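Q: Could you fold this chain for me?
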Amino acid sequence: MKLLTYKEKNNSSAKFGFKVESQIIDISRAAKWVSENQNNDGFLLIPNTLKETLIEWNKNFSLLKQLEEIVINNDIRLFSKNESGLVILPPIPDPPAFRDFYAFEQHVRAARKLRGLEMNPDWYKLAIFYFSNPNCCYGHGADIPYPSNTTELDFELEFAVIIGNGGKDIKAHEADKVIAGYTILNDWSSRNLQREEMPMSLGPAKGKDFASSFGPYMVTPDELEGSWGDDGKLHLKMTCHVNNGKISDGNTNDLYHSFGDMIERASMNTKLVPGEYIGSGTVGTGCILELRPENTGGWIKKGDVVRMEIEKLGVLENKII
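A: Sure. Below is the predicted structure, expressed as structure tokens.
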């Protein structure tokens, strides 16, 4: 399923839905219709937000799949809206936490080389991450304010998983039990601010503190079953265009540390809770820092449109204002 959080234009209340073709199904409305017309109140138990639905994910996902089947077998116009007329929010607008990893070798190698550093052999042993700001999440189509005190604005092409059920000390081979779905992630970066703070050995903070884009959907793992290779990795093409010019071209299968490894590391000695984002880190070629501004037309400027696309996950597009 492709699940999402959205608003109708001129309406401030967020809604929870899923996509069928080009239509967005209002889950609450569909559940009420089934109750009134098919004498089945079971779907009224589905929570009103995706975040709440993730708490008892297995039970709620089963209900959602059943509801989807009913919707498809009836007139979807009864409970749908065209996606083009909606404001798409991040799948989880208010995540309890957002950990972003550093798991693509090509990007790590290139970024370290720019700082005059060789690859640290411990990187191959440890899936490492930093905590980003969960309070500045933007969805598909949202305008991103240009951050103050920034002269080198960059995008980062990534993908992320969203945690369902939750748990503590989760082993890598059990991670599929808490991966509710996948989404596109743009980890916006102020490179000049990041450059100031990184030598202090506490990782990026203000350089990443102003915006992260997620969306447009949370795509559940069953949608991606045909995309797993014999190497045990997802094979999804990843691209980024800036003002219609393609800059980045990568693939999810270049991930060195699996999401299982990331989740095992993230949940060590602590509890992951439903609705958290776990980011992959930047794919190779997935940012201007790596490609160099002189080769890409410079850093991101006000008015630029950054469009990310990942096969089967959709398109995430934002404009800098």
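A (continued): The chain has two domains: 2-88, 98-320.
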